[in-house]
Amino acid sequence: MRELTNEVEQLAYVVIGAAIEVHRVLGAGFLEEVYHKALKEEFAMWGIPYRFEHPVFVTCKGRQLVKAN
Predict the structure, then answer these.
(1) Is residue 31 assigned to a domain?
(2) What is the dihedral angle through the alpha carbons of 54, 46, 41, 69, rounded to the nearest 10 degrees?
């Protein structure tokens, strides 16, 4: 297993913190779109750069399975 750099650990810490704050304020039960918008706002408030709906390529045994945006 690869060791995470201090920079990655710090970024993970603030991203998870932002997500927890959104959940703490909104609670459970909303559609994904509500949390998506709230997380964008929270990231902006925390100064976390973000890009949503970035294409992701999933491969298995050398074959492309999914290209999700």
Answers:
(1) yes
(2) 10
